## 1
Amino acid sequence: MNRWVYVIIALLLVPIQTTWLSAAGLHTVRPDLVLLFVYFTGFYAGEWAGILTGSALGLIMDFVSGGPMGLNIAAEGIMGLLSGLLGRFFLNTTATLTMGMVLLLSVVDGIVVFSFHQWVMSGIPFIEVFRWTILPEALYNTLIGGFIFWAVVRRLDIKKPWADPASYSTPIV
């Protein structure tokens, strides 16, 4: 994909997520398109691309959110790193694998954000936040991530940089 198209899509995700998806949410739970974009970037392009994309989009989210500065930079950067590391282990992806990893990363993202909020303002019970926010948002992201994989990603011919057989070293006999 052309780099400019990639950058335009990335920059449009934050306004779409903060405006249109607020209406598509269930109660306070809405899908996290930035997390999904960072996941697919890190998984298919590597951990550095995931970290840089996640941190850049996290910075933009911090500017427009009005919340504590640095929270989204750290959370999205960590998600980019984790998705890049997970991408090295799986060469053949399926919708089920994608949905499982999006669920895992979404729960980890929710716990990272909760931990930061707990550090800043204590007294929030974890089980309530997990039951009413983290888990439903993770399930929502999982369904949308599976749909994105089914509708878009599996149709693209994406080659992982480390999956090239020519880059493997031949054993000495």
## 2
Amino acid sequence: MADGSRWAQQARVWRARQRQAAIACVVAVFFHAVTLGTVEGASFSLNGVTFSDHLGGFVLEKVTGEGSMDDPFVLIERMTDSNGGTLSFRVRRDFGNRIGSHHAIAFAVIKIVENTSDLAWNSFELELQSKLGVPSDYYDGLSFGQGSQVGRPFTAEGFDQVKVMDEPYDRVLFDHGRIPIGGHATLRFVISETMPLNEAYLLQQPGKPVAEERITSDRSLARK
């Protein structure tokens, strides 16, 4: 084979290998990005507040709004774990009060939650925490608008009864309903802080009918 032909052939092989390496690199970067997103979760920063699902149990798909009563933050979520999940949020210090209550920081929220877990729900409880895993109390300044009637009574679609507990912990129970697998619950409430917090948390726990919990447990035991 002439030297010119040999060099031309080697050049073609080299270019083909370069293209393969480039494709492999792109695939690796894409896979890393997808994996990173899965592990770290989704985070949305909007109008001074950052919401994240990085603690797991649910998927935060979209956030809109500005936090006022006329234009509340609307959080679109998929609850994948029947035991619930925890939403973390950070509020910028200069965010202010968007609902007109007496608190230093306050905003209105609508949560639209799809039940993609393996059980239907008959209730849904929200609990505020200024420290992860520790229920909020009177002294941390975090509450569901405690001491104000702005936004109250809280309402929901999918549940007929709403019970707000301001003391000793900050909880809201949406009760007397049924959200089937694939169904949606819409919850309306407000969150406030009397002093800025670096980060706060909203524990979200759906309640399951006792009979369905027993059936699921029996099925799990039968598979073992």
## 3
Amino acid sequence: MRAAARAALHPRSTCTRRARHRTLAAFSSRGCSSMIRRLVPEAPLRETDAGLVAAGGGWFVLNAREARWRRVEERGAGLSFEGETDFPQIGIGLRVLGPGEPMAMYHWETDQEDFLVLSGEALLIIEGEERPLRPWDFVHCPAGSKHVIVGAGEGACVVLAVGAREHQTTRASDGTLEWRDDWGAYTVDEAALRHGAGVEEETTDEERAYARFPEPEPTRYRDGWLSG
């Protein structure tokens, strides 16, 4: 934070401006070219039957209402912004949950996760405790925190979810992202079971944890999911 504040108050000179210090002046004649970095390309957006997806590496702008969502019966709808690409450092997405619909099964991960409630009401179950959530409540889950979020109230809630991937993934020989076996675990918790958001036996197997739910189905955005 302090470094960012200093940078905001004292922005660096461009290569065309006179350097303040002799060391920078000596460097400027040959340093500008070495500071030029390759341009990051724009990623293509591919149209699918259910909406747009990012289809390659690079930067992109994607409107959530135009993107491809996935819907799971009794688990709400979700949007993963990475589409057909891999975000190696963080996962980020939106979840729309109806009352009683769990975002996941109660679990912990080896990296931190964070959540921001954008609209509606939800229930956080964390380390066996229950906490009601309302719009603009922020939830920080350090690595190892056992947690799950369940939709609550009278209508749908929208949650922005961000999760780090440093300790959960590795790169395969072909460059694709692979999940490690020791990513974390789904654990047994009374409160989570009471709200239909927990497993009856601890496991690290995603298929076992979600066996009672159908496979996610691609779907287009539906009016009313997002406000504003």
## 4
Amino acid sequence: MELAENKSKGNPTAEMQIRSVGVVRSPLKEPSLVAESGDLECRVRVRGAREDQGVISELVIDSDIDGILDGIEGFSHLLVLYWAHLVASEGRSIIKAHPMGRKELPLVGIFATCSPARPNNICATTVRLLQRKENVLKVEGLDALDGSPILDIKPYNPGYYATGDVKVADWMERIHREFAEGLITGGDSEETR
């Protein structure tokens, strides 16, 4: 990674190269929310949170990097980083949005949301590893859409990722509570976040 001078602000910025290491094969085909008119908008009836948690997907890793998955079977859960490939260029310039496109929720900065409509539409989801067969991982709970490029996979280590005393915004607590109680069927997932 090389540092380049950001001409507009005089700050050094990193020039980066990222390559896909594979692709997601999923029954999830359409984004639930899209960037529209400078905000998020619900486009389709979205899945319930409980349904998303049970989605079975495949992570198909490029065969030219054979061996990269060796040892992964020793972990029950993985952290999958992927590119939200269906976010239009307009979505990459959104600065503020109503979470899940819900106008009754506060307008917040995009970094306060999990939306993939952001300057770099990189998403992360923790999934359960069900099976490995050569270069294909079968996982449960991935919210990525079919065809999403996989950027990285890491073993989930609760000692590394877990933290105590976590504070969550009131509006996010509300969303989680509504999902848990089955009051809403909206999805805060992949191209929907």
